[in-house]
Amino acid sequence: MLLGMPLLSLVIWLPILFGVAVLLVGDRNAFAARWMAFIGALLSFIVTIPLYTQFDLAGAGMQFEELRPWIENFKVNYHLGVDGISLLFILLTSFTNVLVVIAGWKVIEKNVAQYMAAFLIMAGLMNGVFAALDGMLFYVFWEAMLIPMFIIIGVWGGPNRVYAAFKFFLYTLMGSLLMLVALIYLYVQSGGSFDLATWHQLPLPATAQTLLFFAFFAAFAVKVPMWPVHTWLPDVHVEAPTGGSAVLAAIMLKLGAYGFLRFSLPILPDASREWAWLIIGLSLVAVIYVGLVAMVQKDMKKLVAYSSVAHMGFVTLGFFVFSDLGVSGGIVQMIAHGFVSAAMFLSIGVLYDRVHSRNIADYGGVVNTMPKFAAFALLFTMANCGLPGTAGFVGEWMVILAAVKANFWIGLLAASALIFGAAYSLWMFKRVYLGAPGNHHVKELTDIGAREFLVMGLLAIAVLYMGVYPKPFTDVMDASVAELLRHVAVSKLH
Fold this sequence. Notes:
The protein is mainly α. It has a domain at about 295-494. The protein contains 23 helices and two strands. The protein has helices spanning about 5-25, 30-45, 50-55, 85-105, 110-130, 135-145, 145-155, 160-190, 195-200, 205-225, 230-240, 240-265, 270-275, 275-295, 300-320, 325-355, 365-370, 370-385, 390-405, 410-435, 440-445, 450-470, 470-490; strands spanning about 65-70, 75-80. The chain has a two-stranded antiparallel ribbon. A hairpin with a 4-residue loop joins strand 1 (about 65-70) and strand 2. Helix 1 packs antiparallel against helix 5 (about 110-130), helix 4 (about 85-105) crosses helix 23 and helix 16 (about 325-355) packs across helix 23.
C-alpha cells in the first residue's frame, strides 16, 4: 500500500490520471502541460520502485495481488499481480516514459498537451497489460493501449503517417480478434472463469491446444513482430515521432513476447512443445534474414526497426528451447533491447531534430561537430551489436548458450546474427558519424544540450550497468522462470 492505495493500481492509474489532467490543462498553456507531464511520469516511476524493493525473490507465485469483482455476471474480476517476469517490464515502462517526456520537451510544438497525455495514458495501460491476471482485463488493456499509439503516429508522425497508423492498427487488431476467440473458448471450457491461474490448470485435448496456440500466436507474433508478419514495423517506425518509436521499440514489442510467457506456454504446454520447431525456425529467419535486410537500408530508422525484429528473434528463440537459461536469456534480452533500442531511436531523433533527414547519405562526419553526442551514439551502437560489457550482450549470450545446449546447429545459426548485427550497426555508425563532414548541414550542427545529455546519460548508465552487473535483473526472475518451466513440462492432455 502507498497513499492508501494498493501499489499495482497506483502504478496503472496514476499515469492515466495525470494524462487526463494534462489534457485538461490543454494547449493554451504548453509550459504547464510539459511540467505536469514530467511530474506525472516521474511520480509514476517512483511508485514502481517499492514493487522492486519489497519483492520476495524466493517466491515464484504472484505478489502484490489485488482482486475485486468487476463484471459479476460473467465472473470478470479486476485481478492484478506481478511475478518476477512481469515486474521488470513495469519498471522498464515507467522508466522509458520519463525519458520520452524529457526527449519531446522542445521538439513537440503542436498539440503539446495531447502528445504528453497520450504517452502517460499509454504507459498506464501497458503497465495494466503486464499486471493483469484476468483474461478479460488483459484483453481490455491490450486493446486500449493501441488507441494512444494510433493517435501518436497519426498526428505527430511523418508525411505518410496516416498509412502507417492504419497499417499498425489493422495488423494488431486482426491478431487480437483471434485471441479474443481463444479467451472466450477458455472461459467456456473452464466453467465460466477468466482467471489465468484457473486456465493454467485446465486440461485440454490436443486439437483444441493446437488451435488455441495458433490463435494466441496470431496476436503475439504480430506484436513481437515475428517474421513474416513484421512488415508493419519498419513503416510505422519511419513515420512515428521519435518518442513514439522509442516506446514502440522499448515496450510495445515486448508485450507480444510477454503474451507467450503468460498464455501460450503455461496454458498450452503440449501444443507449445509440439510447435516449438516452427517458432524456432521463424526466429532464426528473423535473426538472419532480417539482419541482412537491415544492412541495405538507406533510412536510419528503418535500419534500427529491422534490427529490432532481429533482436526480438532471439527472444522467441530463447523461450522455445525450454530451458532456464533460454527463458531467462529471452527476458534479459527484452529488457536490454528496451534500453538499447530506445537509446538508438532517441539518438536518431537528436539528429533528425537538427537536420530533418533520416537518410544515412545526408550525414557523415557528425563526430567533428557533435563529439559528446557521437560518444553516446558509439556506446549504443556497440550495445546494439552485442559488445560484452553492455546490456545487449547478456541476453544474446544466454540465448546462444541455451540454443547450443539444445542443438548445436540452432546455436550456430543464432550466433551468426552477432556478425550481421555488428555489420549493419557499425557500418551505419561509420557512414553517419565518421569521416569528413558530408554537407553544410553537418558543419552547422551544435552538440547536445543539458536536456539531451540527461536522457542519453541515463540510458548509457542503464546499458552499462546491466551489461556489467546483470544479477539484480536475473535474481528477480529466477524463481518465476523455474516455476514456469516446471509447469510447462507437465502434460495437460485429457
